[in-house]
Amino acid sequence: MTMFHFFNCAILTFGPHAVYYSATPLSEYDTLGTSVKAALVYLGTALVKLVCLATFLQVSENDGFDPYQEILKAFIGFIDVAGLYFALTQLTHRNISQNHKFQAVGLGWAFADSVLHRLAPLWVGARGLEFTWDYILQGLEANANLVLSISLAALVSLIWLRKNKPKTLIPIIYACAGIVATMPSITSYLRRELEWHFPKVIGFELFTSLVMAFVSWQLFSACQRPSA
Amino acid sequence: MATSKNSGGLRQLLESTYSVIALLFILVACVELCDAAAAVDVYRLIQYDMSGTPFGSRFAALNHHASSLRFPPGADLSRTVLIIPLRELNVTFVREYITQKKPLGGLLFLLPEVLSFKQGGNKQVHEKGKMKKLLMELEQLLVHSNIPYPVYFAFENDDIDTVLADIKKNDAMGQPATATTGGYKLVIPIAEPKKVASPTITNIQGWLSGLKADEDANQLPTIAIVASYDTFGAAPALSWEVTAMEVALWLFLKWQGFSIFSTQTLRQEEAEELDLKVVLKHKKINISDPRVAWEHEQFSRLRVTAATLSGCPVAPELFEGTGGLFDGRQYVNETAIVRGVKLVAESLARHIYGHQGKSAQIFADESSLSVNPAYIRSWLNLLSQTPRVAPYLSKNDPFVMALKKELAGHADEVNVQHENLEGIFTFYDSTSARLNIYQVASVTFDLLLLLVLGSYLIMLFCFLVITTRGVDDLIGLFRRPPSRRVKTA
């Protein structure tokens, strides 16, 4: 029964990635290579972030919210953006339209994130006898993360790959990219300072991910129209 | 055209979303948010063979669901552990289960915290008497029965109290815990119990020689003071019963430079001076009976005059007078022990030094020879915290070594004798373990979850196909095979 529970949590955490790949035209254009390369870039970025965190951050004894530390963590979070930029622009991709490129990169990015942060706790914990809701909530978080990664990839590709953007939308694009990039800091602030419970934080993440996805979809389609 | 089709698809999508949300609410209502697992120290019922007949609990490992006494009647308990706190214990119920050999997965008795290692305090003193009687009855029942499932004792604490309250609530709803309905699972991962290899009994002997006048050609008579330091109880790891009186007396007398070995009977006058009532009882000894009622009868058989100091008017049955779970530190009256020690010391001193009939007290209070309550108290504390069932004490057990060292400090000569306990009795190990309590979800919960996740993924798939490729593609996915047939025809 506990392997059954592990299987359930695993399909909740990793299933949507597979579904996304097969449902959208990504599978038709065989963009798996792009996703794999994006996943590798994510691993490299995670390593760089780890080194920066170890170098610049001090370990605090109490579990409170230290604004200075959190701002530092947010800055280190922008390395994510740099990594995405690298994956989108510097790597050689096959002839894929920009529309599909950001989706493939976002998908690979999110899949690597889920595997790195959620596979080990799932394997170790969900197979035990004791039942907790944690792993199901973690799976929901992985879903929210998928949506957020794809939105971030869309916004980054808008910033750097599309040259002719309507002038009025540029600050909005940057603002949205900033919000999505600092989501980890926002959730840690909610959890520690406001002391929200895990389910509430997950609900907030899901809600914001859907909102940001909608906003970036609108921005993307707005930029696709020829500028007036 | 396309937009109306899209809006129709969207409406269907919204409706299915509502049904999934409703299903999720039902799911949440079935299984409450749970706490982490609890881990408790538990102590096993003794397992022994007497002349080949098995007694006690014959199994140690446990892996079953838990249930309280409020289980629905007629429920199958062969894979369930009954958790019974001492307050709710009904000994007839347990006796019925054991004598009628009804199938049961295991028993877990919860002892009130007052009986544990820590000093229980003075709360609920009036309850203690009733619980003591109940525990005595239970212990006698368990120790003399052959029980084919594990029986454990544990002390109540907050964790286990909340678990038990939860179990009672579930049982009241008529849902006994099984694999399909969830609940709590008790797991004790322990190896099968093995025989204790050659259990030994250790006797410690100390000699203190008296002053011999040169012209006295005779040997000085010997006075032997014998005390037993071991116990026997239902849970060997919890048997720290206080035969402390005897041991404390023995040690005190050594300390005062006593114990020349002789035979002696007790004097009543000394007892009256100390306000204690001593009754001398004579009893005929049955020489052919291998079991002796009182400890001194062994000596009497060898034609050595002997007596036993005891609080019981009648000789106890087998394993009855040896104390058990209920004999705790709180039940010991320190002042009574001090008085008893003083009584024996005074009477011995007067006999040895020839002061019979005189009223002066040798061990008067406030003198340098008075009984030291702090000394008695520290030994009582040690004794009440050390489980001392003889077969489970190894040859070099620290407690035995401590006794030997203390005796050596005050006597001239100390001998230690080891004797094997093979023959009539065989004891088995695995006396204490760690119990893990897990809150488990039922299989139906996981099946429901699988259903929900499956529908969620299918919905996600359809949503993505519709938004990125259009509804036609989605329908096309299901219609491809027939269209091929149409082409060939």
Automatic annotation (TrEMBL), chain A:
<keyword id="KW-1003">Cell membrane</keyword>
<feature type="transmembrane region" description="Helical">
    <location>
        <begin position="168"/>
        <end position="190"/>
    </location>
</feature>
<comment type="similarity">
    <text>Belongs to the TMEM147 family.</text>
</comment>
<keyword id="KW-0812">Transmembrane</keyword>
<dbReference type="InterPro" id="IPR019164">
    <property type="entry name" value="TMEM147"/>
</dbReference>
<feature type="transmembrane region" description="Helical">
    <location>
        <begin position="202"/>
        <end position="220"/>
    </location>
</feature>
<feature type="transmembrane region" description="Helical">
    <location>
        <begin position="71"/>
        <end position="92"/>
    </location>
</feature>
<dbReference type="GO" id="GO:0003677">
    <property type="term" value="F:DNA binding"/>
</dbReference>
<keyword id="KW-0256">Endoplasmic reticulum</keyword>
<feature type="transmembrane region" description="Helical">
    <location>
        <begin position="104"/>
        <end position="124"/>
    </location>
</feature>
<protein>
    <recommendedName>
        <fullName>BOS complex subunit TMEM147</fullName>
    </recommendedName>
</protein>
<dbReference type="GO" id="GO:0005789">
    <property type="term" value="C:endoplasmic reticulum membrane"/>
</dbReference>
<keyword id="KW-0472">Membrane</keyword>
<feature type="transmembrane region" description="Helical">
    <location>
        <begin position="39"/>
        <end position="59"/>
    </location>
</feature>
<feature type="transmembrane region" description="Helical">
    <location>
        <begin position="144"/>
        <end position="161"/>
    </location>
</feature>
<keyword id="KW-1133">Transmembrane helix</keyword>
<dbReference type="GO" id="GO:0005886">
    <property type="term" value="C:plasma membrane"/>
</dbReference>
<dbReference type="Pfam" id="PF09767">
    <property type="entry name" value="DUF2053"/>
</dbReference>
From TrEMBL, chain B:
<protein>
    <recommendedName>
        <fullName>Nicalin</fullName>
    </recommendedName>
</protein>
<keyword id="KW-0325">Glycoprotein</keyword>
<keyword id="KW-0812">Transmembrane</keyword>
<keyword id="KW-1133">Transmembrane helix</keyword>
<feature type="transmembrane region" description="Helical">
    <location>
        <begin position="447"/>
        <end position="466"/>
    </location>
</feature>
<comment type="similarity">
    <text>Belongs to the nicastrin family.</text>
</comment>
<dbReference type="InterPro" id="IPR016574">
    <property type="entry name" value="Nicalin"/>
</dbReference>
<keyword id="KW-0732">Signal</keyword>
<dbReference type="GO" id="GO:0005789">
    <property type="term" value="C:endoplasmic reticulum membrane"/>
</dbReference>
<keyword id="KW-0472">Membrane</keyword>
<keyword id="KW-0256">Endoplasmic reticulum</keyword>
<dbReference type="GO" id="GO:0009966">
    <property type="term" value="P:regulation of signal transduction"/>
</dbReference>
